[in-house]
Amino acid sequence: MSDRRRVRVDLAGRAYDIEIGPGLIDEAGALIKPLLARPYAAVLADAAVVERHGDRLKAALAAADIRSDMISVRPGEASKSFESLERVCGALLDAGVERADHIVAFGGGVVGDLAGFAAAILRRGCRFIQIPTTLLAQVDSAVGGKTAINVRQGKNLIGAFHQPSLVLADLGVLDTLSDRDLASGYAEVVKYGLLGDAAFFEWLEENGAAVLKRQRAALAHAVEVSCAAKAAIVAEDERETGRRALLNLGHTFGHALEAETGYSERLTHGEGVAVGMALAFRYAARIGMAGERDAERVEAHLARLGLPSRLRDVPGPALDADALVSHMRQDKKVVDGRLVLILPEAIGRARVVPDADETDIADFLRERLAS
Q1: Known active-site residue 221
Q2: Is 244 labeled as catalytic in the residue annotation?
Q3: pTM for this predicted structure
Q4: I need a labelling partner for 209 at 20 to 30 A (CA). Which of 223, 283, 305, 363 fits?
Q5: Active-site annotation holder among 191, 251, 327, 333
């Protein structure tokens, strides 16, 4: 089976391809050039990615006679801020970026979100291209056009829907990730099985270790299936008025955990999602939506692959249930001040639960913290 795959995001008038395979950074110039209004691209890149892979991308662009400027941002969630956005937009304007130009996001989810939002607002809207360099970004944040920054009230609360023109998911670059970062991205892969594809989750139970060992065929299949699942949902519900909300399985709990741990090294986004998905299954079992056996199966799989699956797995000071619920109130899905959760009915099937019982959730979290 070939390691090179292509997934189409079928949006009327704004459709684009996700190219998946090794070596795509070296082919970036040739792949990007047909999309450009002029042979120029502004690259917004994670500083650590510039150090590891920046010369390769510059060379690939130069080989296609594309002039480029590379603007670096510091790694980490702290870069998704108004301050960073202002600095980045200023640098892009100073570089002479025009409305018809493309901004290239070169890094993980932080850079993709920041570059995408900058593109959405710069000169009232430029186009952009995603070259995601983490597994998490390749299977989730680089696909679907959600762009945002964080504010003190919560994560991703200021942003825009702005679709890329192309996504280049270079599998080879994943070889340079730490085991922790790769496992963090794997949590988002698991999500696609849990919310809508029981057969894929079964495949992950058999092959997840191979994915995390970076076995190329397994990794290519996991990325392709994940991207295809997200592409289908985005094509049906681009602006999250319905089914797209299912992609937030585990995220309401997970984002609360990220906020409570200060968006720090205590907990990565993917680790927060892993714990959040396990909590979603446990809470669904508590209210009679799902079975305890499915909850146990999900926890066991996450733990076996080295991901946290229980609140006690989060390192550092003890967590507080009321504080977590307070963070959950800032979730983007809140309606009329009422919590909305994405909960599973079984492995491979989930639905939106409006008007979730906040008091019961707090009691549930206290019980899980004590277990």
Answers
A1: no
A2: yes
A3: 0.95
A4: 283
A5: 251
